[in-house]
Specification:
Chain lengths: 123, 108
């Protein structure tokens, strides 16, 4: 059974940093690209970042480019999102999600999602 | 960036009736279109991909159609567990992949 478990969320002041983790199990982690998708309170879904499985190519949405860094440790089956220079508008539930297709660069088609980690940016 | 527009924002349907949800892309996405269902307090669930292919375990009452810029999700006979928010997503022109704003299906 595929499981994705996010951790690391919390309350942070504007300008601060936070690192999210996503522990994956139930599939061959290195074979799949992974993405982070966020959802502000009461709002829709916004793709944030993606990383391919083997060559670690990374991709970002414009609102987070230059501030967020996605990475992965295939030996630990774990995905990360380092969030720097946080802003109030980054407040959201952050989901990690698995790509549907194996062995491809990020496709963005997401078949399994974690339950999310809440990030609140406020003074 | 490809903008996805969903309509209506809210759809009120009686149980057992049909629901038809629309999604429009600002430029062609071919058939690289997915639909997700999200219930309160839950993560999104993949329902449909490649515009018309049901994901594993998705009941046959859910069907998708369309190509290019116009897409439809149809729920043939609404069950109580189908009342939720539905999002379309394009994964053709990325980064970024983009989602529509969602359609909330509620009980009439």
């Amino acid at each position: 059974e595929v499981q994705l478990l996010e951790s690391g969320g919390g309350l942070v002041q504007p300008g601060g940093s936070l690192r999210l983790s996503c522990a994956a199990s139930g599939f061959t982690f290195s074979n799949y690209a992974m993405s982070w998708v966020r959802q502000a309170p009461g709002k829709g879904l916004e793709w944030v970042s993606g990383i391919s499985g083997i060559d670690y190519n990374t991709y970002y949405a414009d609102p987070v480019k230059g501030r967020f860094i996605v990475s992965r440790d295939n030996s630990k089956n774990t995905l990360y999102l380092q969030m720097n220079s946080l802003r109030a508008e980054d407040t959201a539930l952050y989901y990690c999600a698995k790509d549907f297709h194996p062995f491809v660069v990020v496709s963005g088609l997401l078949d399994y999602w974690g339950q999310g980690a809440l990030v609140t940016v406020s003074s | 960036e490809t903008v996805m527009t969903q309509s209506p924002a809210t759809l009120s349907v009686s149980p057992g009736n049909r629901a038809t949800l629309s999604c429009r892309a600002s430029q062609s996405v071919g058939v690289n279109l997915a639909w997700y269902q999200q219930k309160p307090g839950q993560a999104p669930r993949l329902l449909i991909y490649a515009a018309s292919t049901r994901a594993s375990g998705v009941p046959a009452r859910f069907s998708g159609s369309g190509s290019g810029t116009e897409f439809t999700l149809t729920i043939s006979s609404l069950q109580s567990e189908d009342f939720a928010v539905y999002y379309c997503q394009q994964y053709s022109n990325w980064p970024p992949v983009t989602f529509g704003g969602g359609t909330k299906v509620d009980i009439k």
